[in-house]
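dumping this here before i forget
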Amino acid sequence: MAFDAEVISAAALNVDLTAAEAIDIAGAPCPVWAAANPDRALAWLFVAPNDCLAVDVLTAN
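structure:
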């Protein structure tokens, strides 16, 4: 998901997190969202590389 669209649990928000820890909690982007927002998905995968279905969607064409 995009940096501003990710939902993080309330418990995680009560803790002082570094940017890297917040990215690790967020996980892989949704492939449907990646297809609809390829620029944002590529930016997310650049910051947090992940072998996921979103990569397959982005490289399908």
